[in-house]
Amino acid sequence: MEYNSIKKLLDAYFEGTTTLAEEQLLRDYFKSDSVDTSLSQYAPMFNGMSQAAQEVSTGMIVLPINSGNRQLWLGIAAMVTIVLGVAGFMYSNNSLTQEEQQALAALNESKAAMMLLSQNLNKGTETLSLAHKFETTKNKIIK
Fold first, then answer.
1. DSSP state of 38
2. Total-model pTM
């Protein structure tokens, strides 16, 4: 095969777009003695794949039986535990003591006072901003 067609097949191979027949052409090319020197770096890879394709495993593969059933029960148990935990948290008695209720009311009043103070400070800041603009404009006009 000529260099250009092999180079195109290599590019397609590394992009993952070759067919099985094209890959076989590449393996056959790199097994031959007429490999171009600029492509010789790929020869060990394709020769190794050819050897790996001929390997056969003779060992026994033992698959566990009923492992899915055990995982199913563990999953169900985990879900029941989560549901019970969430339900217990949601329906727990959240009654506050009299002192806690008074503290909560005082906190809410303090929040309201702080919001009012914040609003008034914001109005004052806007007024100062307008005064600064007025001063800048006055200085431009007077000069």
1. G
2. 0.40
